[in-house]
Design goal:
mainly alpha, single chain, ABC transporter involved in vitamin B12 uptake, BtuC
């Protein structure tokens, strides 16, 4: 089979897998629903209990998990090619820490869920602006300076989160911890995140060739006419916005943005024209399946989806780390 046909077949398989994962998420739960009833509830909604549960509870949650996984995997793929490190993570610039400070601050004040979402997004944007502002400094913006600034800001946000957890009323600590470990149960508005994911893919794909050249080295990219500085800044900001949207929607979910792009790269190669959309589909599928397991494995008790992704991601991360050449991990 020609290489082009093989890649198209893999992308088609990932698309089918994503659809199956969403349908499975709509079907399983305390109330088991057949696939025919699921399709009927989506395309011809009625007034029955099954239709209400699917449309008002399971469908928003499944789409939120898929959007979150796709956002994190896309951001991870961008960060890994920009940093030229397959073990880079979308949270590396401290974005999740800023979102956690904003969201938990709103929870401590007893704000409604809408304001928790708004505060989380505002905190993520504030952390992003702080990192880029401090990293720029006197104009000598460098990749190393950006990463070090992100680590420091993340540490500061972690300290603020610990302080809020220590001072929060006991009645709110559990919900705060659950949010920090990833929780898709309260994601009632997944559509903005899906739109952000679609627009991000549309915006990134025209620069996929430039990213392929950049992956070969900065000097090579500059010699071939790529505006490396502008491209890096634009894609760093885009990756930060994707991460902020994801954290706002579902909370902090680890390892999806780290592991999925690397595994897709092992299967499909390093062509960003294929890797980025494939990572988005694979990340969305993985998190949808993980969220389905999180609410069914110990039903009626629900697990934070971030716990399951960590249980999957930690051994995979250690495996990838063991295969990395020394000095490049």
């Amino acid at each position: 089979m020609p290489e082009r046909h093989r890649l198209l077949a893999v992308l088609g398989g990932l698309l089918v897998g994503a659809a199956v994962a969403v349908l499975l998420s709509l079907r399983v739960g305390e109330l088991q629903v057949g696939f025919a009833d699921v399709l009927t509830a989506i395309f011809r909604p009625g007034e029955g209990q099954a239709s209400t549960i699917i449309r008002e509870l399971r469908l928003p949650r499944a789409l939120a998990a898929f959007a979150c996984g796709g956002l994190l995997a896309t951001a991870g793929a961008l960060m890994q090619v920009l940093l030229r490190n397959p073990l880079a993570d979308p949270y590396i610039l401290g974005i999740s820490g800023g979102a956690a400070v904003g969201a938990l601050g709103a929870m401590v004040l007893g704000a409604a869920m809408f304001w928790v979402d708004v505060s989380a997004f505002a905190g993520a944007l504030a952390a992003m602006l702080l990192v880029f502002g401090l990293a720029h400094g006197d104009g000598s913006w460098t990749q190393t300076r950006l990463l070090l600034t992100g680590v420091i800001v993340a540490a500061g946000c972690g300290a603020a989160v610990s302080l809020m957890l220590a001072l929060a009323p006991d009645t709110r600590v559990m919900s705060m911890l659950f949010w920090m470990m990833g929780d898709a149960s309260a994601a009632a508005r997944p559509w903005p995140a899906l739109v952000v994911l679609a627009l991000a893919l549309v915006a990134v794909m025209p620069f996929a060739r430039d990213l392929n050249v950049l992956a070969r080295g900065e000097l090579t990219a500059r010699a071939l006419g790529v505006r490396v500085g502008h491209l890096r800044i634009a894609l760093y900001v885009l990756a930060s916005l994707l991460t902020a949207t994801s954290v706002t929607l579902v909370g902090s979910v680890g390892f999806v943005g780290l592991v999925v792009p690397h595994l897709v790269r092992l299967v499909l190669g390093n062509d960003q024209r294929v890797l980025i959309p494939a990572a988005a589909l694979a990340g969305g599928t993985l998190l949808t399946l993980a969220d389905t397991a999180a609410r069914t494995v110990m039903a009626p008790q629900q697990l934070p989806v971030g716990v399951l992704t960590a249980l999957i991601g930690v051994p995979v991360f250690l495996f990838l780390l063991s295969r990395s050449p020394r000095g490049k991990a």
